[in-house]
Description:
heterodimer, A: alpha/beta, Rossmann fold, L-amino peptidase D-ALA esterase/amidase, 2 domains, six-stranded mixed beta sheet, 12 helices, B: mainly alpha, globular
Amino acid sequence: xxxxxxxxxxxxxxxxxxxxxxxxxxxxxxxxxxxxxxxxxxxxxxxxxxxxxxxxxxxxxxxxxxxxxxxxxxxxxxxxxxxxxxxxxxxxxxxxxxxxxxxxxxxxxxxxxxxxxxxxxxxxxxxxxxxxxxxxxxxxxxxxxxxxxxxxxxxxxxxxxxxxxxxxxxxxxxxxxxxxxxxxxxxxxxxxxxxxxxxxxxxxxxxxxxxxxxxxxxxxxxxxxxxxxxxxxxxxxxxxxxxxxxxxxxxxxxxxxxxxxxxxxxxxxxxxxxxxxxxxxxxxxxxxxxxxxxxxxxxxxxxxxxxxxxxxxxxxxxxxxxxxxxxxxxxxxxxxxxxxxxxxxxxxxxxxxxxxxxxxxxxxxxxxxxxxxxxxxxxxxxxxxxxxxxxxxxxxxxxxxxxxxxxxxxxxxxxxxxxxxxxxxxxxxxxxxxxxxxxxxxxxxxxxxxxxxxxxxxxxxxxxxxxxxxxxxxxxxxxxxxxxxxxxxxxxxxxxxx
Amino acid sequence: xxxxxxxxxxxxxxxxxxxxxxxxxxxxxxxxxxxxxxxxxxxxxxxxxxxxxxxxxxxxxxxxxxxxxxxxxxxxxxxxxxxxxxxxxxxxxxxxxxxxxxxxxxxxxxxxxxxxxxxxxxxxxxxxxxxxxxxxxxxxxxxxxxxxxxxxxxxxxxxxxxxxxxxxxxxxxxxxxxxxxxxxxxxxxxxxxxxxxxxxxxxxxxxxxxxxxxxxxxxxxxxxxxxxxxxxxxxxxxxxxxxxxxxxxxxxxxxxxxxxxxxxxxxxxxxxxxxxxxxxxxxxxxxxxxxxxxxxxxxxxxxxxxxxxxxxxxxxxxxxxxxxxxxxxxxxxxxxxxxxx
Lengths: 498, 341
């Protein structure tokens, strides 16, 4: 479709674009990225025929763009301009109709039925049909952008060029515009070439990206390759962190804000002094958010949380939407649900066990509440239908250290292995299968780290962190189960149920 | 379509009534029916009007009709040129007078008179020819300087450059006048703009340029629409910008130069009329250009009528009246535009 071969050029006496080659296929959404002054707009002007090339060639359908007449070129390439103030009060329809200029030959060619049809179709598509008889000047930036998009689309082009189309548009319009462009690319085979400022939008919408630096092509690849931390750091001279989008298989880049003032930055240290335990709930409140991975009722998955609540509920607790009920409970108790990890248990909270364990340059605090009335062998269990509300094992692990994501996951493995070992050693059995139990059906875990201090890359059992987590969970789990069993035994002998 | 027809009917009616009024009113009143008869007989050889007084025939046919037609042609030329300049420069304040094009044409005209230049072959067309040439040169120089000062060619820059050139050329004209000495009154009267005492000869001078210039512009109406969105945008829409721009500037200069050659500098018609027409009937140049011509012609015919009746028997230069009306309108548009941006 479009082939750029060793293109160089720019303004008189200054070569802005240097020896760029790439090709774009029909229906492709191709993004151009690069810092200010890297030659993106110049390259786009060369493709649209506004600027002549000093060297190289740009071809459409095998023919050099210079060989097309202005009108013939306009039938193949349309440009969505950046918004500029309007001088004359054309109506929306008049403005859109100007896009048909290239399709009119001769001096007196009349407006045809076909012209009218395509104009109406595109106005409908861009959602501007309803105000086609109003003046363009009356409309907001977002609407004007759609009007000019319609003007470009009625040119019936094969290629649409865009220079930062989302500039000055608010969030909803940005998405709407890019969705529309992608739809045109997929459904109608429109080739879209867009300069984009926002790397994350580029990642979400573009099939391939050209990353420019000082007029040269630094990379031409799919977003996953181009948006690498090293490349972006090198070209934009800015530290970014690459993460997968949580719903779409595309990368997203996160900026790191500059380091805060050292004096203002607080050191935090998690220990038992922040822990408060009552019959109703066990709470740990940190001064600043901790990076957390958990299976809590509220605040599950990865996130940053300040408050950690293990709430006692009655054994008969049942609620259709227990997440909502839990959020309401947290709000009622003065915890912001968005800053809180919340868990539930029917276990008597006084049976908890916790302890602090020192490592070299880091420390770990583990808090466990355990009920084993419903212990199961995880290798032989079957799905349970209906409410599950027996005692459960909730394990909290706080780490004063700076963990990688691997270390978080390894912490969970290590802790789970330690838990299984405790149950085995204590001979706790699955009543249905009469085999050694590995946990309860509703066990929950939480790993929270301050992300300050020592860098802890791994938490497997062969590492110091892993060893300490294993030991700490083992000790506290054992103590919590002992507490639980002791209470049960006392309750039985007293003939009451506690 | 229907609403477009109404626009043209209204504009034509205005023009026709303006012309009839202007021919009818003056030191001697000529009844409108007589005018129709005279024109019918003299111009179309119809067998009517043999009962009309011969003095009326002479007044209408030899004095007032050529004067009205000349005023109409000048008004139409200036209005369409103004509309085209405004569209091309994306600037509702652009106008031959403000851009210095009129002054440029005047320099050509005054020089021709002063040095008594008469080019071979073209003869009586020497004056309009040189006026057009200097008009075109002026607009090119003004635009070149404006671009030098400010690459984006903002409204203010172009106007300022135009004003600087107007002053400079004005001073040049004053110098020539000072050197002339005699016929001072006549040259100043001419400079202030007038269509009086010109006769059919002047109609003959302006007519070919008027047809050429306005035809060129009318054929570029669609391109003007595209270019009023900016040159880059026009090129993206498929307009051959360099070629069309030159054609439009050439046509605008031909019209202005010819108008100045026959009537001196008449300011603000090119500003006010397109602006008014656009307000009434929209900015689409395919209609704006012809409608501006009709309204401009009617307007200058009426202004000329005013100029010769207001302090009768004295005749006021018509340029004085257009400036008296036009300058405040210019100020008004400028203020409103500033507020909007």
